[in-house]
Amino acid sequence: MSKWKNIICYGLGAFGHDSFYGILNTYMLMFITSLMFSNGSKSYTTKMVAIVTMILMVIRIIELILDPFIGSMIDKTDSKWGKYRPWIFGTGLILGIGSPFLFTTMGGMSTSNGGLFLVLFTILFLALYLVYAFKDVSFWGLLPAMSLSSDDRGFTATGARIGSTLGGNIITVVYASLLTFFSDSKNFTVHGWFMFALTIGIVELIGSCFAAFGTKEKDSVVTEQNAEKITLKQVFHTLFHNDQLLWMSLSYIIYCLGTSTTNNFLLYYFRYVLNAQSSWALVGWVGMVTGFISIISYPTLAKYFGRRKIMVGALCVELIAFVIFSFTQTVTMTLVAQVLYTLANPLVFMVLLLTIADCVEYGQWKTGHRSEAATSAVRPMLDKFCGAVTTGLTGIIAGLAGMTGNATATAASISTHDILIFKSFCFYIPFFCILIGMIIFIAKVQLDEKMHKDIVDKIAQNIKAEDSNN
C-alpha cells in the first residue's frame, strides 16, 4: 500500500509542479510580450520585452550554476520528516502565494516608470526563481530516495509523468477559457492574467502538500552511506567523475535546446502564423491523451525492450514529427505532427529521469560518496539552462517577427520572410538538435537496468563487508 501511496501522491505533486512550470515558461512569456507593456508605444514595447526576456535568461543561467550547491544543502537536511519533504512543502507555499504577482504591471508602472518597474520585477523574479530551484531539486530528488529498485522507480516515475503530462497540458486546454472568464472578455486583461496565475499557484500548492505529506523516503545501508559527512567538494567530485551522468546530460541538453524552443514558440505559431488561436486547446487535448497513452505504456515497453531501445525509438518518432512540422502550415497536419511528438516526448523524459536516478548509485559506486539531491539536480539544471536560452530567444524572435503587443500584432501583419525565420527556430533547428542528441546517446550512454542492478548489489556487498571488518 505504501508503494501505491507514493506513486499516487508523487503523481499529484507532479501535476501541480508541471502546471506551475507551464505558466513560468510558456504563459509568462505570452503575458510579457502581449500585455505587460501594451500601454506603451510599439518601439517602447519591443525594447522593454527584449530587456525583460534577457533579464529572465540571465537570472536563469546564474541560478542553474547554484543548483549543485542547492543539492548539497538539501542532501545535508536531517529532519524527522525526511530530507526532501520539508523543502517541497515550504517552497510550494511560497510559490503558490507569490508567483501571481509576476503577472502584473505593478499598477501601470511598467509604462509610467519603466526603470523602477524593471528593478522591482527583477528582484521579485530572482527571489521566486531561487525558491523554485529549491522546489524543483527537492521534488525530483525525492524519486531515487523512495526506492533503490529500477523497476519501482519506473512505476513511480510513470505516476509522476502521468501527473506531469496532465498538469502541463490541462493549462493548454483551459488557457483561453480561464483567461476569458477572469478577463470578462475575449481580449485578455492584466487582471485576467493575475487570476489565471493565482489559480495555477493554488493547484501547485495543493500538489506540493500531496508530495510532502503523502510520500515516504526509504532507509537502507545504501542510501545512508556518507549521508551526514559528504562535503561540497565531494559532491562536485561525484558529479564530475560520473561519466554516464555527463554523457546523458550532453545528449539531453542538445535535444532539449531544440524541443524547448518549439514548446515556447508553438502558441505563437498557432496565434500568428496559423491564425488559429481558437484551436490551441486542441494541442492540450492531444498532449493529454497521447501523453497518457505513452506513459502508461512505458512499463510494458520497458519490460520487453529496455530503456535504450525505447529512447532511440522515441527520438526517431520525434524526427518524423518535425519533418511534418517543417513542411506543413495547416492546423490539421500540425496537430498530426503534435500527436507523434507528444507520443514520443514523455518516453524520452522517462528514460532521462530514470537514467539520472540510476546515476545516483553509479556515482556512489565510482566514488564511494552518495549524493541524491545533487545528482538529481542535474536534470532540472539542464531544463533550466534550456529554458533560460529559449526564453531570451523567444522574446527576441517574437519582437523581430512583430509578434508583440496585445492588439497590434495579427496573423495578417506577419510577412512570409518573418514566418521563414520563425519556422527556422521553431522546427528546422530543433530537428538537428534531436538528431545530434540521439547520436550521442547511442554512442556513449550505457547505463541500463541490468547494469544498475549489478551496481546496487556491489555497493551493498561492499558496505556490509566494511561493517563486518569494523
Automatic annotation (TrEMBL):
Gene Ontology CC terms: plasma membrane
Keywords assigned: Membrane, Sugar transport, Transmembrane, Transmembrane helix, Transport
InterPro entries (UniProt xref): MFS_2, MFS_trans_sf, Na/Gal_symport
GO MF annotations in UniProt: symporter activity
UniProt-listed Gene3D superfamilies: MFS general substrate transporter like domains
GO biological process: carbohydrate transport; sodium ion transport
Alphabetical list of Pfam families matching this protein: MFS_2
Bilayer-crossing regions: 20-37, 49-66, 86-103, 115-134, 193-213, 245-268, 280-298, 310-327, 339-360, 381-401, 421-443
NCBIfam families cross-referenced by the UniProt entry: gph
Protein name: Glycoside/pentoside/hexuronide transporter
Species for this entry: Limosilactobacillus coleohominis 101-4-CHN
